[in-house]
Amino acid sequence: MSNKTQSQQLNNRLDKCKHKLAVAKSRGDNEMISKFTDEVESLTKQVNSLKGKQEYELNKERKKLSDMPFNREITKAEQADLGKLKKSVRGLVVVHPMTKLGKALRLEVMTGFAPRQF
Hints:
By secondary structure, the chain is mainly alpha-helical. It has five helices and three strands, in the order ααβααβαβ. It comes from Vibrio albus.
């Protein structure tokens, strides 16, 4: 299961438990309140752990790209035929500024990272 789907499932379960906890509090059912409080706490820990793992992987990828010896802006003409560019440059990684990785790298324009000049 991917991190994204796992995160969505955990957040959905957390929302359901919070809703059930609110209903139990309105009824005054102490047994259910304690059950859902414990479940909300455990789900919150799992969500935070998963977020930490995702952030670690993103930072690892960011570090790998920033350590590449060459990077430059991808021109509009190159963007139009990106497949040709990727075939001509071995190991090219193109990062869009609106992706998580692009935001982590603080990119302003579509940028290519490669082990050699292109």
